[in-house]
């Protein structure tokens, strides 16, 4: 677009830029405050609350949280569930999406409808809980993965992506003696890497952020993923419900420790975000189109 | 459509597409057997974790006892649904849900639109990209993280907000435990987490606008604000309406996690919503059937809302969601 060089146009641009800069700052400041606070000594934070950059970098909060087994264990749970869950979800989502993307499949409209209908209507929390319980999944890590293994939304995005791959490619592979699995894994998937990356990242973020399934299906606190532990340490310890958050022998966590746990629970997202960022806008667009 | 042979003089074979002999169908099904094998895990997932719970909804018409199961429990008809509308607790919870939903539409919904318009007017790709990258980021943080960050910032002992308040001579405020602050906190957290992400879809539809329209408007002497009002906004009206429909369809479905995390015994009066009540009544107190009836009520209202608002929008000449 052409630059508007009138006085009104410049004023408009300046005000617009300033407002956006302020909004962006407001968005990132809370997080900068928490990261900075987690690297500050608790004495400095207590004396001088407005830390955005610590005077002395201190790792005391991190040393403390990693000296307790609790955090390391639940990090392990979260990492494991994220890796296994993402792989599993991706595999069965891709298989289903590919099947449904093939126009010569009889009954695909019925299957499509059954998937879309679950986005409009569902059984709800208690009946789902009872199914999970009947299957004997309570207190198993599988309960964090299986009940939400496929996101109908992600599946439809992937299906639409597959449908845009020229049919001729698949046909020529078939003539060369490739079966449907071969076509999917050797032709379709390699051609769909951007979509695969986007959806894997969506799944990975969801698994890393798993909270509700853990609350519903895990009674055993030894199996808690990091998000549940984070709530115990930060939210419950600061409210009146304060009880045993870390080991009973430890003092109630102070601000720096809470901040450090927040950072640790966010870290993987911050690490994959630059990769995520490249793809997700496209993925979100695909998803907003009609199936 | 009929395929017509390109060669002149060759009569295309006319075979009506609707014709399917059963043996031909069987042959096709068999030829695609591997595709059905591929569908199997996904179909099993949807049947077990989506459709079986729908079947489980029938316990809302029973006096469900875990040890007797669905087949052994006693039928009570619509008793639980009748209870919904007489229970003062439930009416309060319905009210809370509707208020939070109204605040959502009023205070959250317009923000991504405004942000997208502002971002679109920004010249210079570097800043545009930087701002976008940073305001998208909170969307990927879990509600636990968002709520935790606000907790450490607003806590009475050493939270930065309260320290600032007392620095400037104001009273400290107990944001976390006072019922009056629950709703503002709730909506601010939603705006912080979702406003940036919400711009994506609007920015995309703005990008699809024909630049010629702006040129013509400029020739007619329209300034930036007039261009936004007469070109950009009308062009994205369809998207706005569609998103509004989706939002209205989820009127009772505010999401369990966020509210559950903010809920405590001090703010229960204003903070308990349908989703959290289903959890408390069902899993904490063991009223499986009553709680399922509440969830059922919620799902049906959601379905009716989506379908009717969609119909309405089609009548008004908009595209609708499906």
From TrEMBL, chain A:
Report if keyword Phosphoprotein is assigned.
no
Q: Tell me which domain of life the UniProt entry assigns to the organism this sequence originates from.
A: Bacteria
Localization (cell): Cell membrane
Supply one GO BP term.
transmembrane transport
Transmembrane residue ranges: 12-32, 77-98, 110-129, 141-162, 183-208, 257-276
According to the UniProt record, one GO cellular component term is: plasma membrane
Start and end residues of each ABC transmembrane type-1 domain: 75-276
Q: How does it sit in the membrane?
A: Multi-pass membrane protein
Predominantly, its location class is membrane
Which keywords does UniProt give here? Cell membrane, Membrane, Transmembrane, Transmembrane helix, Transport
Family membership:
Belongs to the binding-protein-dependent transport system permease family.
Q: What is this protein called?
A: ABC transporter permease
From TrEMBL, chain B:
Looking up InterPro entries in the UniProt record yields: MetI-like, MetI-like_sf
Which UniProt keywords are listed? Membrane, Transmembrane, Transmembrane helix, Transport
Q: What is its main location?
A: membrane
Residue limits of the ABC transmembrane type-1 domain? 94-309
Return any one Pfam family short name: BPD_transp_1
Q: Name one GO biological process term.
A: transmembrane transport
> Would you tell me the Gene Ontology cellular component terms?
plasma membrane
Q: Where is this protein localized, as stated in its record?
A: Cell membrane; Membrane
User: What membrane topology is annotated for this entry?
Assistant: Multi-pass membrane protein
Transmembrane residue ranges: 34-52, 98-119, 140-161, 195-214, 235-256, 288-309
Task: Note the superkingdom of the native organism.
Answer: Bacteria
> What PROSITE patterns does the record point to?
ABC_TM1 (PS50928)
Hey, which family's this protein in? Belongs to the binding-protein-dependent transport system permease family.
Q: What is this protein called?
A: Sugar ABC transporter permease
The species is Paenibacillus sonchi
């Amino acid at each position: 677009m052409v630059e508007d060089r009138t006085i009104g146009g410049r004023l408009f641009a300046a005000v617009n830029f300033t407002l956006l800069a302020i909004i962006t700052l407001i968005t990132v400041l809370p997080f900068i405050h928490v990261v900075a606070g987690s690297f500050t000594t608790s004495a400095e934070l207590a004396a001088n609350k407005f830390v955005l950059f610590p005077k002395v970098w201190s790792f005391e909060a991190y040393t403390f949280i990693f000296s307790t087994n609790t955090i390391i264990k639940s990090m392990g749970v979260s990492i494991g569930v994220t890796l296994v869950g993402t792989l599993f979800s991706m595999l069965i989502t891709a298989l289903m999406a590919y099947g449904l993307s093939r126009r010569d499949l009889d009954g695909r409209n019925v299957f499509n409808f059954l998937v879309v209908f679950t986005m409009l209507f569902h059984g709800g929390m208690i009946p789902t809980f009872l199914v999970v319980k009947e299957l004997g999944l309570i207190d198993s890590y599988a309960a964090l993965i299986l009940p939400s293994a496929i996101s109908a939304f992600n599946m439809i995005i992937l299906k639409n992506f597959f449908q845009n791959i020229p049919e001729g490619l698949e046909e020529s592979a078939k003539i060369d003696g490739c079966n449907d699995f071969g076509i999917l894994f050797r032709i379709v998937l390699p051609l769909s890497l951007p979509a695969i990356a986007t959806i894997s990242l969506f799944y990975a973020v969801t698994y890393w952020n798993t909270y509700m399934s853990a609350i519903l299906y895990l009674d055993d606190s030894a199996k808690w993923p990091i998000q549940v532990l984070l709530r115990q340490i930060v939210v419950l310890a600061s409210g009146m419900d304060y009880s045993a958050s870390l080991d009973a022998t430890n003092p109630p966590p102070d601000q720096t420790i809470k901040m450090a746990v927040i950072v640790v629970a966010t870290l993987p997202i911050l690490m994959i975000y630059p990769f995520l960022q490249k793809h997700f806008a496209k993925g979100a667009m695909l998803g907003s189109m009609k199936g | 459509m009929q395929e017509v042979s390109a060669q002149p003089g060759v009569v295309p074979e006319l075979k009506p597409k609707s014709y399917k002999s059963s043996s031909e169908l069987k042959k096709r099904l068999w030829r695609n057997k591997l595709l059905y094998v591929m569908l199997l895990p996904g179909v099993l997932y949807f049947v077990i974790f989506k459709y079986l719970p729908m079947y489980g909804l029938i316990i809302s018409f029973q006096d469900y006892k875990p040890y007797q199961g669905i087949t052994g429990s006693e039928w009570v008809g619509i008793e639980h649904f009748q209870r919904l509308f007489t229970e003062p607790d439930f009416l309060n919870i319905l009210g809370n849900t509707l208020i939070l939903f109204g605040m959502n539409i009023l205070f959250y919904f317009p923000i991504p639109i405004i942000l997208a318009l502002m971002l679109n007017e920004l010249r210079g790709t570097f800043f545009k990209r930087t701002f976008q990258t940073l305001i998208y980021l909170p969307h990927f943080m879990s509600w636990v993280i968002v709520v935790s960050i606000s907790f450490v910032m607003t806590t009475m002992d050493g939270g930065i907000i309260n320290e600032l308040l007392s620095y400037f001579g104001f009273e400290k405020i107990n944001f976390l435990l006072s019922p009056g602050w629950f709703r503002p906190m709730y909506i601010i957290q939603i705006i912080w987490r979702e406003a940036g992400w919400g711009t994506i879809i609007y920015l995309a539809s703005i990008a699809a606008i024909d630049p010629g329209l702006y040129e013509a408007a400029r020739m007619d002497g329209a300034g930036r604000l007039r261009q936004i009002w007469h070109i950009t906004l009308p062009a994205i009206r369809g998207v706005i309406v569609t998103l509004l429909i989706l939002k209205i369809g989820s009127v009772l479905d505010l999401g369990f996690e966020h509210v559950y995390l903010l809920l405590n015994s001090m703010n229960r009066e204003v903070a308990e919503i349908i989703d959290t009540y289903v959890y408390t009544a069902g899993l904490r107190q063991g009223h499986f059937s009553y709680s399922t009836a509440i969830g059922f009520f919620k799902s049906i209202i959601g379905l009716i809302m989506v379908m009717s608002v969609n119909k309405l929008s089609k009548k008004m000449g908009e595209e609708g969601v499906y």
